[in-house]
């Protein structure tokens, strides 16, 4: 099994923060404390604490209070609170995704910290390293993690040294320098134990367990996970407990102890559901699918695989929605700025027109003065319109760039979905090679073909100019040819006739339709002909009277046994899509086997360069 390890834990350190368990009550308390504050020192502290409490729920309020703190710190010439407020501002930039602005602020904080004899500088370096890690600049991240560690050594802080060593070990792994990782993690574990910091001890154990598991040193990995479990319960860290339990289950699976692995996965599943973590849930379902397949409980395995795929699809959709919303916000912001520019232009023109009328009324009395005024007005208007035109051109380019980024993002999402489906197909192929039962092999092969029919749709979406539509005139012949190739049929014996109209459909119609075609063609390829038989398989697809008509016909043996009846899994799958597509399925036997599928619910899309 290909195991996706959890990302190692990076420890983000913020300075001068007050931790509160109940945010609304905390904010109310801080505001009442602000009303009673008597010194600028107290006000700066409370402003920063309010910004920290607001940053995850009300970003505008967080910015408001940190700006108040920074203004007061500048007025009071307080280096300490200026450094703290600038770091808070940098954190807000980081949370909003403006990482470059955050780095610039941290660079301005460094000289302030140096003037304060380096107080809090280790936290500044650590926060900068984490931003560089987020930007995939691991060499720069390593440089600042090392600076943070050196300062922790000078302070003699075992807790800080342990945190830094964890981060340095992880960064070495990211840089492809794994030899130092176990020594650094063991050193971090020892320091955390000496500092009696259960949280860092727990993180160090999990990092070591993950490392040993990746190196297939199962005994050492199991030792780390076994130690981590009771510690996570002691400090009430449910998420870390889940990591440890999932790690133990994966070790048991690799050792062939499937019943024990199943119990561990089921225990972990209850916990990850309560955490509402889709990433952990998908990992547990995939692990259970592997366990059930190894135990030959294929139905249970299929159920777990379906749950895994459903969660991964949901995660992909959520990521797509987040990125789409970000692009939409950029577009709306650019659009709003363009509207403001247009209003300013209109107002300017109105003012100029009024001035012109006023000048005209005074033409007889001030002709010479008016002439100079008109010349000045024309010159002003020329330069003003050129400036506005340049502004509008810049905004239009920004909008076009945002739309281009959105299209690129959609193509990337479809590409990733196709790659994930290919991974599932590869897993099914690997599983199929280890199965001796021919029926089970056939079931695996058919599942692989179904996955491939869906992957082919996503391949068309990211490779075609049209991101939202599938051209069935290209998709259906391609799918049929790949099925012929999969069953290794001789085209000289079995003739494939395809008559498909170039109809473009949306993805919600194309995927179930592709699965139906996959099942019907597979049915004919498997059961219609005996070895060395000659025959024909015909596929037609057209739109008639606001309905899609799909016909799959073969000249084979007809429906002679239950394998081609409604009780087969393939036909059950086809029937399952009848309600979704408002389809009518007709099965005829006219010297062969013929299925006519009439679809009433579909969405046809027209290419941008054609009329609908």
Kindly summarize this structure in a few lines.
By secondary structure, the protein is α+β, with helices and mostly antiparallel strands. It contains 21 helices and seven strands. Helix 5 (99-115) packs antiparallel against helix 6 (121-134) and helix 12 runs parallel beside helix 14.
What do these coordinates show?
The protein is built from 21 helices and 7 strands. It is α+β, with helices and mostly antiparallel strands and 612 residues long. The strands form 2 sheets. The chain has a 5-stranded mixed beta sheet with strand order 2-4-5-7-6. Strands 1-3 form a two-stranded antiparallel sheet. The longest helix is centred in the middle third of the chain and has 68 residues, at 367-434. The radius of gyration is 33 Å and the shape is flat. The two termini are 49 Å apart.
Question: What distinguishing features does this structure have?
Answer:
612 residues; Heat Shock Protein 90; Serine Threonine Protein Phosphatase 5, Tetratricopeptide repeat; flat; alpha+beta; disordered N terminus; single chain
Tell me the Rg in angstroms: 33 Å
Discrete helix count: 21
What is the fold named in CATH at topology level of the domain at 1-155? Serine Threonine Protein Phosphatase 5, Tetratricopeptide repeat
Question: Which strand order do you get reading across the main beta sheet?
Answer: 2-4-5-7-6
The name of the CATH architecture of the domain at 1-155 is Alpha Horseshoe
Order of helices and strands: HHHHHHHHHHHHHHHHHEHEEHEEHHEE
CATH class of the domain at 1-155: Mainly Alpha
Helix content: over 70%
State the fourth-level CATH superfamily of the domain at 1-155.
Tetratricopeptide repeat domain
Mean pLDDT: 79
Structural class of the secondary structure composition?
alpha+beta
In terms of per-residue confidence, which ranges show pLDDT below 50 for 5 or more consecutive residues?
A: 1-22
Tell me the number of strands: 7
Q: What amount of the residues lies in strands?
A: 5-15%
What is the first-to-last residue Cα distance?
49 Å
């Amino acid at each position: 099994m290909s195991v996706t390890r959890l990302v190692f834990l990076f420890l983000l350190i913020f300075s001068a923060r007050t931790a509160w368990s109940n945010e609304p009550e905390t904010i109310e308390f801080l505001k009442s404390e602000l009303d009673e504050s008597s010194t600028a020192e107290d006000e700066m502290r409370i402003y920063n604490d309010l910004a920290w409490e607001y940053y995850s729920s009300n970003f505008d309020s967080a910015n408001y209070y940190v700006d108040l703190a920074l203004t007061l710190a500048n007025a009071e010439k307080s280096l300490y609170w200026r450094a703290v407020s600038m770091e808070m501002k940098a954190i807000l930039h980081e949370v909003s995704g403006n990482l470059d602005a955050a780095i610039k602020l941290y660079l301005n904080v460094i000289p302030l910290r140096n003037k304060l004899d380096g107080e809090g500088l280790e936290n500044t370096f650590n926060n900068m390293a984490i931003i560089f890690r987020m930007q995939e600049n691991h060499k720069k991240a390593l440089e600042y993690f090392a600076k943070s560690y050196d300062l922790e050594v000078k302070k003699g802080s075992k807790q800080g040294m342990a945190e830094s060593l964890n981060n340095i070990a992880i960064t070495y792994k990211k840089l492809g320098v794994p030899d130092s990782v176990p020594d650094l993690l063991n050193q971090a574990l020892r320091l955390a134990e000496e500092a009696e910091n259960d949280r860092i001890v727990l993180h160090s154990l999990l990092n070591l367990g993950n490392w040993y598991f990746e190196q297939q040193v199962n005994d050492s990995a199991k030792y780390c996970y076994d130690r981590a479990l009771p510690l996570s319960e002691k400090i009430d860290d449910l998420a870390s407990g889940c990591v440890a339990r999932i790690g133990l289950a994966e070790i048991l699976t690799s050792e062939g102890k499937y019943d024990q692995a199943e119990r561990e996965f089921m225990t972990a599943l209850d916990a990850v559901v309560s955490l509402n973590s889709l990433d952990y849930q998908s990992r547990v379902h995939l692990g259970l699918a592997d366990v059930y397949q190894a135990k030959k409980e294929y139905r249970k395995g299929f159920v777990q695989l379906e749950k895994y795929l459903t969660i991964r699809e949901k995660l992909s959709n959520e990521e797509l929605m987040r990125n789409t919303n970000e692009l939409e916000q950029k577009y709306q912001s650019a659009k709003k700025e363009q509207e403001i520019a247009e209003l300013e232009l209109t107002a300017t023109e109105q003012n100029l027109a009024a001035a012109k009328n006023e000048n005209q009324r005074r033409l007889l009395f001030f002709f010479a003065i008016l002439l100079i005024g008109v010349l000045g007005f024309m010159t002003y208007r020329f330069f003003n319109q050129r400036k506005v035109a340049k502004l509008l051109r810049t905004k239009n380019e920004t909008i076009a760039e945002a739309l281009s980024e959105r299209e690129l993002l959609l193509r990337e999402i479809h590409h990733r979905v196709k790659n994930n489906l290919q991974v599932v197909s590869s897993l099914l192929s690997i599983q199929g090679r280890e199965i001796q039962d021919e029926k089970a092999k056939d079931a695996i092969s058919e599942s692989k073909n179904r996955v491939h029919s869906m992957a082919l749709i996503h391949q068309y979406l990211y490779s075609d100019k049209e991101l939202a539509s599938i051209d069935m005139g290209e998709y259906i012949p391609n799918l049929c040819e790949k099925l012929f190739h999969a069953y290794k049929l001789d085209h000289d014996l079995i003739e494939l006739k395809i008559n498909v109209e170039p109809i473009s459909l949306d993805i919600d119609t194309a995927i179930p339709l592709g699965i139906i075609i996959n099942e019907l063609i597979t049915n004919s390829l498997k059961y219609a002909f005996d070895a060395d038989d000659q025959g024909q398989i015909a596929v037609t697809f057209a739109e008639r009277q606001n309905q899609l008509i799909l016909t799959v016909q073969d000249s084979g043996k007809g429906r002679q046994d239950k394998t081609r009846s409604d009780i087969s899994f393939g036909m059950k799958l086809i029937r399952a899509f009848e309600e979704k597509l408002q389809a009518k399925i007709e099965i005829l036997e006219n010297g062969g086997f013929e299925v006519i599928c009439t679809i009433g619910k579909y969405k046809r899309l027209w290419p941008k360069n054609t009329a609908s």
